[in-house]
Write a structure and sequence with these properties.
Rossmann fold, single chain, 2 domains, 311 residues, binds (2R)-2,3-dihydroxypropanoic acid, 5-stranded parallel β-sheet
Length: 311
C-alpha cells in the first residue's frame, strides 16, 4: 500500500485513528526509523513532533508532500522558507494550548517565587526541624511589574493570571512599542525592551523562536533586569542566553529562574543541574490530557483539509 499520511506518533486521544479511518493509507512509524524512511517517497502528509526537526534535505525525499502537520504551536523546527517555495502547507495547533501553557508559566512563577521545590526537597530530606521565621523566604508579587515578551494569546493569557495576583503586566513584542495591549481584564503598556527590562520584577517569555527573536536576550540585556528579578521561560530555548542567565543567577543578581524549555533540549547545560533557585521542567507547557487531545484533533482536521478530505 502506498502511504499517503506518515505520522511519527499515534498522538494523544482518538484523532489520529479517526484520520486513519478516513485515510486508510496512514502509517505510524518512529521518526527516522527504516519504516518512516521507506514511506517518504509516497507521503503526501507528514505528521511530527516539535522534537523532530526537519531540513530541506528531508523535503527532497518527499516529492509528493503537500502538508506538514506539527503537534505543537511552535514551528521553529521546520524549514518554513523551503516549504513555502515548494507549496507545502504547514499546519500547527494554535489556540488550543493557550491556557495550558499560561497555567504552566504561572506554576513556574509561583514555584520560583515561593521556593516550592526547595521546600519540598527539605521535607523529603527528613532534615526539616520545624517552622522558623526566616526559613526559605520567597518573594512577593503583588504590585510588581511583570514584563511579558510576546503579546500573542499565550502572553495575554499569562498577563490575565499575573494581574489576578496583583501584578502589573507590561509587554514587549516585535512591534516594540505602540498601542497598549488588551489582555482581557485591563490594558497593559507595550514598551521597547530597554524600557521594559529595568522595571520587570518578573520577566516571562511568550514569543516564538524566529530569526528575529533568536538570541534576543543576551547577557547585556538580561543584566538590565533589576536585582532579584525572576525569569520564566515556557516559550523556546535560544531566545535567551542560558549561560548568561545562569551566571546572573549564581552571582545573586537574579532571584530565581523557572524553565520549561532549553536550547538544544533534551540536552541540558550541565550548570542547570547545580543551579540554586532554578525550577526546571521537561517541556510540559501543553501537557494536559484535554489539551493534547484538542491539539491532535485540530492537527488531524487540518491535515485532512489540506488533503482535500474531512475528518
Ligand atoms: C508548542 O506546542 O510549541 C509548545 O512548546 C508545547 O509546550
Amino acid at each position: 500500500m502506498n502511504i499517503r499520511i506518515l505520522s511519527s506518533s499515534p498522538l494523544v486521544g482518538p484523532a489520529l485513528k479517526q484520520l486513519g479511518a478516513d485515510f486508510p493509507e496512514l502509517c505510524v512509524a518512529p521518526f527516522r526509523s527504516i519504516a518512516w524512511r521507506m514511506a517518504l517517497p509516497t507521503a503526501e502528509a507528514l505528521i511530527g513532533l516539535l522534537s523532530e526537526p526537519l531540513g530541506e534535505a528531508d523535503l527532497d525525499l518527499m516529492p509528493r508532500l503537500r502538508v506538514i502537520g506539527t503537534y505543537s504551536v511552535g514551528v521553529n523546527h521546520l524549514p518554513l522558507e523551503a516549504c513555502k517555495e515548494r507549496g507545502i502547507q504547514v499546519v500547527s495547533t494554535p489556540g488550543v494550548l493557550t491556557d495550558a501553557t499560561a497555567d504552566l508559566a504561572l506554576a513556574l512563577l509561583l514555584a520560583v517565587s515561593r521556593r516550592v521545590a526547595e521546600g519540598e526537597a527539605l521535607v523529603r530530606s527528613a532534615q526539616w526541624k520545624g517552622w522558623a521565621p526566616d526559613q526559605l523566604l520567597g518573594t512577593g508579587l503583588n504590585n510588581k511589574v511583570c514584563g511579558i515578551l510576546g503579546s500573542g494569546p499565550i502572553g495575554r493569557a499569562f498577563a490575565k493570571r499575573v494581574w489576578a495576583l496583583g501584578m502589573k503586566p507590561a509587554f514587549w513584542d516585535r512591534d516594540g512599542k505602540g498601542l497598549p495591549v488588551d489582555f482581557g481584564p485591563g490594558l497593559a503598556r507595550r514598551l521597547p525592551l530597554e524600557e521594559l527590562l529595568p522595571q520587570s520584577a518578573v520577566l516571562s517569555l511568550h514569543c516564538p523562536l524566529t530569526p528575529e527573536t533568536r538570541g534576543l536576550l543576551d547577557g547585556r540585556k538580561l543584566a538590565r533586569l533589576p536585582q532579584g528579578a525572576l525569569v520564566i521561560n515556557t516559550a523556546r530555548g535560544g531566545i535567551l542566553d542560558e549561560p548568561a542567565l545562569m551566571d546572573l543567577l549564581a552571582r545573586g543578581h537574579l532571584g530565581g529562574v523557572g524553565l520549561d524549555v532549553y536550547e538544544g533540549e533534551p540536552a541540558l547545560h550541565p550548570g542547570w543541574l547545580e543551579a540554586p533557585r532554578a525550577v526546571l521542567l521537561p517541556h510540559l507547557g501543553s501537557a494536559t490530557v484535554e489539551t493534547r487531545e484538542a491539539m491532535a484533533e485540530l492537527l488531524c482536521k487540518g491535515v485532512a483539509r489540506a488533503l482535500g478530505g474531512s475528518c
